Amino acid sequence: MKNLTPLLSPQTIAVIGASTKKGSIGNIVFSNILLSGYTGVVYPVNPNAKSVLGVKAYPSVLDVPDEIDLGIIIVPAAIVKDILEDCGKKGVKSVIVISAGFREIGEKGALLEEEIKKIAQKYNIPLLGPNCFGIINASPKVRLNTTFGRVMPNFGNISFLTQSGAVGATALELASAYEVGFSLFVSFGNKADVNENDLLLYLKEDEETKVILLYLEDLTSPREFLEITRDITTNYKKPILAIKAGRTEAGQRAASSHTGALAGSDEIYNAFLDQCGILRVDKIEDLFNYAKAFAYQPLPKGRRVGIITNAGGIGVMAADAAALKGLEVTRFTKDTEEKLKKILPPQVNIANPLDVVGDADEERYIQSLKAILEDENIDAVVANWTPSIMAETKRIAKRISEIALHYNKPIFASLLTLENPKEVIEILWEAKVPYYSFPEEGCAALALMVKFKEWTERKLTEIKKFEDVRTEKVAEILAKYKDKKFILEPDGYEILKAYNIPVMPYFVVNSLEECIEKVKTLGYPVVLKVVSFDVLHKTEAGGVFIDIEDEEELKEKYELLINNMKKKNFNIEGILCQKMAEEGVETIIGAKKDRIFGNVVMFGMGGIYVEVFKDVSFRVCPMRELSAYHMIEETKGYQILKGARKGKVYSIDTIAEVLMRLSQLVCEFNNFLEIDINPFIVYEKNKGGYACDARFILC
Question: What are the entry keywords (predicted)?
Fold first, then answer.
């Protein structure tokens, strides 16, 4: 683990490239350090200046008469390596390279970046950047702004890590507008050395950081990132909210199975971030909208929300937003209903959401809000107020702030006003009550808090390792396919059986007579499929016939299948005859090797439905036991499996076990590019299921 204290909380700084030229980055950075109220000592380094902004300058970092914790390099890219060598000789403990012109500009810049990385490693100097915006430590103990931005944020308990300097600069402006304070702000740029994982390890232990915000474009080491963030969110219970940019992948390779086609990188990123316990958001403003709730409100005990309003329409909108986010707009207790009857006029409908009606004054609204907050059926409250002649919005904000301090429940205020909104926000913020322009935003924030609370309280399970697998059998099969692109279906079935994944009974024959004889033990109806290295997609090639009821039909379809293959000059390795599955629920279970995350498993509703509805979920391998069940629960098809509308309950345990066994298979054998079990037919609870088709694509 890198020691990042000299980088993020330095006592002495040298700004190499500090400039007297007004408006230059070197001038702005040095000025920002001075103006931020930095509690340490800063030295400007410039061979062409005697002083910078009234502070004595030194021609070289080697001339600075002090030990240096942090060197900030703001010079042309071509000479950064020379400056870094001087920093190494001086014993500088960390550096920030703000200079651009490295990997982001192409091959020439990438070579320069590799050089400075090697120098940093030679001298064991943690290097942030290059091509970064800098850092801000807003702690009263440090008060440091090394960026070339315009904003020094207030101190708070939120830390923000960003891969993009431009996004970082925008975020600082927004944070100021949203009244959000920071503990640390770090722009890490090209991450030649210090990366998101190093910074997360630091923030994990940082007592001044309660909430972590991330802007990411890629990951340095996904496996390490997963371990660190799971630890932060599970054991340290610090929420992480992230924007992952690049939701589309133009030019994605056309996959040769359903699994590959559906496993777009963004879907896998979603699954991966879920496994980390990270809450993904879409917009920068959402980061701050939600972060202020996490930073200053208690986590709700559950998902039951109380809604109060002085306008019926707003209450309906809030209730819709809550329900759509998975919150429960629950009924008030009898005690609360009785309290409200004494507060409200007789014409008011006592229900959740509660509309105190448009003629409500300040006292009616506030007493009703108190009653809801005291209700044991309510875990959180979204308080809505529209402009009214009966009460000033500022007064409502003031009263909400006063009572919020007396209840250990999250309160979200949606006071829809254009009259001095900044003043209203400031009044609420005195009591750390988050303000939202519309109730939908408050409901979204609350839903994320519920999700994180449930994550921290989830049952912890391990990665289950099955000991009853026959790895030697799989190795034996794979040895036959060294120069092949895919595995023939019978051998695919044998691989599944070696990992105790149930397969619908089958046999392979080379003649009609043999097929007629063997089907007597299998029983009708049956399916016929061609086994050929020339045929990957059997249906399109006329290489499969299903639901064959008797011997006469078997003869007809067998001959037709053979003729179909001969017409296209396809070689035939054999004919697979398989028992026709009884009616159940078709699902798809698959795996693929992702270029970023490695092995990934997939689950969804099978057959043609996977293509039409794309109702699938993913997990990065290896997979914990509970993750397998969560995969199933995430799909819309789960409602069918668990017996929606008093229907049959299906064997979810079987699906979960197959997912875990498939995860173990792809972790133990690195040969598979894609695996597609479609369909895996599952039957009623305790009756299991079977793989009825399997496709294995090799790397």
Answer: ATP-binding, Ligase, Nucleotide-binding
